[in-house]
Design a protein that fits this description.
- This protein is mainly alpha-helical.
- The protein folds into two domains: about 15-185, no CATH class; about 205-335, Orthogonal Bundle (hpI Integrase, Chain A), CATH 1.10.443.
- It has eleven helices and seven strands.
- It has helices at about 15, 25-30, 40-55, 60-80, 90-100, 150-170, 180-185, 205-220, 225-235, 285-295, 320-335; strands at about 105, 115, 120-125, 130, 255-260, 265-270, 275-280.
- The strands form three sheets. A three-stranded antiparallel beta sheet has the order 5-6-7, with no helix packed on it. The protein has a two-stranded parallel sheet with strand order 1-4.
- Helix 3 (about 40-55) packs antiparallel against helix 4 (about 60-80) and helix 4 (about 60-80) packs across helix 6 (about 150-170).
- The longest helix has 22 residues, at about 60-80.
- It is elongated.
- The relative contact order is 0.09.
């Protein structure tokens, strides 16, 4: 077991923009009392994540934050060397570390990084950089941390984030090479997969069964009207869950439904790549839209300029995040 104890480095994007180290006492001590270069490298990571948060989605920010945080923690605590001096062999050594991290670097649940107490952001002692959880189908929820291994997708995400990080540092003239780009092709943990891949998507009959389940649940209990509306939107409008969600720079509202001069309905969507598009709303979706609106005490059809959120919270104000929407969808899957 490693004797080092990792601590979280970066909060949410909104908190990062306002971060002052004096408000994070343990983090401040951690990065200012070790090697002289630690504070500089932490600031590089902060600048990169601020750039990511400004220009990318919340999901991309969270994914890059997880990976850059782990990488810098490893360089501070395990390698004890500055990342601008790394070579290909150092990155491959880090890949070996990620393949089999120390058990005290592995958690078994999602944990927030910092907890606000007495006007200070205190480090959450339960947070860990790596996470392993029991499969939903597993009866016993006990997990053996020693059996942790990252998936090929996770390993790819790790390299992608580090490569992009080094590219950013090169653009800022902090580094003059990208060892991660060179190391990726020599990483022994990648498996060359030439199998025919079956695309994982629901068939038409499976979608219909899921929709029928949601209808039955909403008929029995109006609390599931939201679930039904979300399932109908995903099935009929071919939307991503994130496209229904509240984001920092976009709030889906009922006023985004609109009719053209031929009385065709459209929905304005802010989607992948931060692009705005109009998607057609077929007639078989309209009964679900009317039903959901009436359950909220609204008129049957949206009006121009209407500011009611598209998918409302039961408690609180504003729209729902992707995480909350996934729970609504998962609830229907669990009953199907």
């Amino acid at each position: 077991m490693s004797k080092t104890t990792p601590v979280p480095f970066y909060p949410t994007y909104i908190e990062l923009c306002e971060l002052k180290l004096v408000d994070y006492p343990k983090l401040n001590d951690f990065i200012t009392t070790k090697h002289k270069w630690c504070l500089t490298h932490w600031q590089w990571g902060k600048s990169f994540l601020e750039y990511t948060g400004r220009n990318k989605s919340n999901h991309t920010y969270d994914r890059f934050r997880n990976e850059i945080e782990k990488f810098l923690l490893w360089s501070f605590l395990e390698k004890k060397a500055p990342i601008d001096e790394f070579r290909k062999t150092d990155i491959l050594e880090y890949a070996d570390f990620c393949w089999k991290p120390p058990v005290n670097w592995i958690g078994t649940s999602n944990q927030e990084r910092f907890k606000l107490k007495n006007s200070y952001f205190n480090t959450n002692e339960s947070w860990r950089p790596f996470k392993v959880q029991a499969a939903k189908s597993q009866l016993s929820k006990d997990v053996d941390k020693k059996k942790y291994r990252p998936s090929q997708q996770t390993l790819t995400s790790t390299f992608t984030a580090i490569i992009v990080f080094y590219n950013y540092l090169m653009g800022e003239e902090f580094c003059y090479g990208n060892p991660a780009q060179i190391a990726k092709k020599d990483c022994k943990h990648f498996i060359s997969d030439t199998q025919v891949k079956e695309i994982k998507r629901l068939s038409s009959s499976q979608w219909q069964y899921l929709l029928d389940t949601a209808v039955d649940m909403a008929n029995e209990d109006p609390i599931y009207e939201r679930n039904l509306f979300v399932i109908a939107s995903l099935k009929t409008l071919f939307l991503r869950i994130s496209e229904l969600s509240e984001r920092e720079n976009w709030s889906p509202i009922m006023g985004h439904f609109w009719q053209d001069e031929d009385e065709n309905w459209w929905l304005k969507i802010f989607g992948k790549g931060r692009k705005l598009r109009d998607t057609t709303v077929p007639s078989d979706f309209m009964p679900f839209l009317k039903r959901y609106r009436l359950s909220r005490g609204l008129s049957g059809l949206p009006t121009s300029g209407e500011n009611n959120v598209l998918v409302e919270k039961i408690r609180g104000q504003g729209g729902m995040t992707s995480r909350h929407l996934r729970r609504l969808v998962q609830d229907i899957f669990d009953h199907a």
